[in-house]
Structure formats: structure tokens, C-alpha cells
Amino acid sequence: xxxxALSYTFVQKALVSGIAVALIxxxxxxxxxxxxxxxxxxxxxxxxxxxxxxGLFLGVFPLWTAFIVSILGGLGLQxxxxxxxISGDSAVAVVLVSGLxxxxxxxxxxxxxxxxxxxxxxxxxxxxxxxDTLMILVISAAIIATLTVMQKQFLHLTFxxxxxxxxxxPVTLLNYAFVxxxxxxxxxxxxxxxxxxxxxxxxxxxxxxxxxxxxxKKTVGISMFISVISVVSGILLSYYYxxxxxxxxxxxxxxxxxxxxxxxxxxxxxxxEIKKQPQTTHNS
Length: 284
Known about the structure:
Elements: H1 2-6, H2 9-34, H3 40-58, H4 62-83, H5 88-109, H6 115-122, H7 130-149, H8 151-159, H9 161-166, H10 171-193, H11 198-210, H12 216-241, H13 245-265
Helix pairs in contact: 2-7, 2-10, 2-11, 2-12, 3-4, 3-5, 3-10, 4-5, 4-10, 6-10, 7-10, 11-12, 11-13, 12-13
């Protein structure tokens, strides 16, 4: 049955794109969760909804407007956090509802929800085109390469922003670069699980991976493994049972997280120790 599914081109494209998205969500998600920015993906995804609505309203390719609006939203979020006393989660909430409100206004002005908008809201990985697949692969490779090269600087920034300043790192510039990368990751991932569930793929595999109490690289590796297993099994199960792949992927990830927590509570996983997350000094 697996071979039958793999013989279809649309399943092959979905798996290739899904695995690429799973890898960048896990890698970027590790930084976001460590920075206690778990809802960042949710906030940017809702801003992307506004960007997609702008594209559909103006009649231009909605993914490009989503990229532009999301990056601007992410930079605005970072500026709001740095320039005011607003905490990180409150800043995310402000950006989230602003993007959603813009989208709702434009959607109502253009006559209501369309099939294209629903595909972005709930994901449409099985309907992905060759051009979208190529774009996801290129962007994913660029994000992974950038995160790998900038890993030490971003880790320094994540664990202690004040020490990073003392060490001479361009903290403001690095924060903006990180936010832009995170925004691009979120928009690139929308075709897999949709705007409404994108934060699940960023947060859940990383929470499960951090339960093992390993170092950063091993945590990223475990998170990637969980994410890829969730995406591949979710796409194949959705094909066989004719259900939405986005919901199936998220529920498999949730089931894995519950399984890891239950196994830890029951003592079935040895040498489990949850590492205390380093305290950061920023208002996130």
C-alpha cells in the first residue's frame, strides 16, 4: 500500500516538501522555544493571513505578499518588544490580532472566503505544484544553511542577550535577522499544515525532544526525527483514509508528545532529566 501511494507524483511532491518543512520548523522551533517565543509562529502565521488576503485582494501571487507582510510584521514585533515595556507574548498577541483583522477586512471587501484562502488556512500539501516544491526546497536549504552558520551567535543571543552585548555581538542586527528567518520559515511552512496549525509543527516536536534533556544539537536532531515521522506518516495516513493531512500530521505529533510524557512518567525511558532552560534577560 505504501508503494502504491509513492507511485503517485503528488504524494512524492508532498513528502519531499513536507520533509523539508519539517526540518526547518524543528531547527527554527528549537531557538523559538528556548527563547520562550513559542507563539511567535502563530502570530506571524496570522500576519501572513493578512498578507495572503492583500495578495488575493490585489490579484497578485499571495505567497509573495505573505512573505513581505510577515517579515514586516516580524520586524514590527521585534521593534515593539525592544522599544516598549510590552512583554514578548503580549507583543505577539498585538501583531497576531492586527494581521488577522487586516485579513478579515480585505476578505469581506473582496466577497468572502475562496478556495485559495482555505488552502492557506488549513494547508494543501497534496495539491502542491512543482514550482511550490522547488521554492520550498530552495528556501529550506537556505534557512538550514544560515542557521547552521549563525548557530553560535543565535545561541548566545538566546541564552543571554546581555552577555551577547558585552561580547561585542550586534544584538539588534542579529535579532532582526533571526526574526526575518523565522518569518520566512513560517510562511514557507503554511502549505503543509496551514496558518491555523503552523505553531504545532514548530512547538510540539521541540517540547517532546527537550523532554529527553539532551544538548542543543541532539535536541534539534530528536525534534527533526519526530517532526519528519509525523509529517511522513500523516501524509500517508491522510492518503489512505481520505482525511486532511494537516490535522493528521498535528495529531500524530501530539500523540508522540503524549507518548514521550507518559513513558517518562512511567519510568520507561531511562536517564531522562529535563534540563532547566537558561534564563534569558530579555522581556520574552
